[in-house]
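input
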Amino acid sequence: MTTMTLELEPREGYLYARLAGDYSLPEAKVLSLQCLEACAQYHQSKLLLDVRSLQGSNSLTQIYEYVEFLAAEAIKLQRQTGAALRVALVGRPPLLDPERFGITVARNRGLAAMSTGDIDEAYRWLGVEQPDKPA
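output
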């Protein structure tokens, strides 16, 4: 049973991915792999992963498992495409760890990654223009 949804939107200089629904680690892995494959398909080396609409929480063990998976798959993609991938994750506790444990794991695995609760910070870190905000 699917509890999470994924919306992908190629934008100027990056891929925007929005996950929503009830968090599930197995589904998060499948959908994140789809995000990485879309980066390759659209020739994007920057991924903004917006998980602000996900409900649920993560244990440190689950964070470790997810980030280790994501980093390994991203590194595979980098080897195939030759382009270094940058991943910005936008969300909030309890899904994201405020101590940024997962980001430490990702960077230790060779993935340029950051997490934040502030989407403006994610755009700045990726070095891309934010789309026009609705009035």
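quick obs: The longest strand covers residues 46-55.
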